[in-house]
Amino acid sequence: MMLDLSKLDFAKGNGLVTVVTQDARSGDLLMVAFADREALEKTLETGEMHYRSRTRGLWHKGATSGNVQRVVSLSADCDGDAVLARVEKAGPACHTGAETCFDIGPVDALVELDRTIAQRAAQAPAPGEKPSYTRRLLDDRNLRLKKIGEESAELVTACADNDRERAVEEAADVLYHLLVAVRPLGVTLDDVKDVLARRAGRTIPAPSRREEG
C-alpha cells in the first residue's frame, strides 16, 4: 500500500495528480478523480481514499454516504502524475448510485456470472413463475452434482478429440456449473480467487460485513 509521495509530480497538474480507482477484487474500473499531497497523506494515514475536488476541496470518499473505499494498494505510473488505487469498496462508487462511474459493465465476465448466480440464489421465483435453470440447479442438489459430472465428461472428450472450439464451450459450461454447485455452500468466486491468490503468494482482502449486507 505504501506510496512514495516524493516521487509524484504534483507540479505537472497544478498541485494535483489523477487517481484511477479500481475494485481490487473484480478488477472493475470504479472512478477517476484527483488528489493533491494532502489528500494522499490522509489516504495513507487512514487507509481510506481521500480525493481533492475542485469544488468540494478535500474529500473523504463515503464520509456521508458510508460508501468508503478501503485501500489495498496505491501505485504511481511511470511519469509520476497518476496513481492507481486498488480498493475494497463498501458500496457504489458513483454519486448516482451506480456501482461505477463508467457504463462499461464488469471487467471480468466470471464476476458478472457469479453476481447473477448470487441474485438467483437470493430471490425465489414468484408463485406460478417458472424457475430459471440456475434456480432449478440451486434447489436440486442431485441435479447440480449430476450436471458437473456431465459437463466435465464433455470437456474431457473435447480435449481428447483436440476440438478447440468445443473445448472452449465446454470449459465455460463447467465454470458455470461449478459456481452454481458451490453457491449453496456459501462459497463465492471471491473465495476461490482468495485461494488462488494465496497460492500465487499474494493476498486479496476479505469482504467487509457492510459489503455483504
Question: Would you write up a description of this structure?
Answer:
By secondary structure, the chain is of the alpha+beta class. The chain has 2 domains: 5-89, Phosphoribosyl-AMP cyclohydrolase (Ubiquitin-like (UB roll)), CATH 3.10.20; 109-212, MazG-like (Helix Hairpins), CATH 1.10.287.1080. The protein has helices at residues 37-46, 109-122, 133-139, 141-160, 164-182, 189-199, 209-212, and strands at residues 17-23, 29-35, 50-53, 57-60, 69-76, 82-89. The strands form 2 sheets. Strands 2-1-6-5 form a 4-stranded mixed sheet, with helices on one face. It has a two-stranded antiparallel sheet with strand order 3-4. Helix 4 (141-160) runs antiparallel to helix 5 (164-182). The longest helix has 20 residues, at 141-160. It starts with 16 loop residues before the first strand and ends with a helix. Mean pLDDT is 88; it is low at 207-213.
What distinguishing features does this structure have?
Helix Hairpins, four-stranded mixed beta sheet, Ubiquitin-like (UB roll), single chain, 2 domains, 213 residues, two-stranded antiparallel ribbon
Radius of gyration, in Å, reads: 21 Å
Q: What's the CATH C level of the largest domain?
A: Mainly Alpha
CATH topology of the largest domain: Helix Hairpins
First-last Cα distance = 26 Å
Total DSSP helices = 7
Number of domains: 2
Give the mean pLDDT.
88
Quantity of strands, as a count: 6
Strand order of the largest sheet: 2-1-6-5
Write down the overall geometry.
elongated
Percentage of residues in helical conformation: 25-40%
Helix- and strand-based class? Answer: alpha+beta
> What is the CATH superfamily of the largest domain?
MazG-like
| Unreliably modeled segments | 207-213
Percentage of residues in strands: 15-25%
Largest sheet: 4 strands, mixed
Q: Architecture of the largest domain, CATH level 2?
A: Orthogonal Bundle
Please provide the ordered H/E string of secondary-structure elements: EEHEEEEHHHHHH
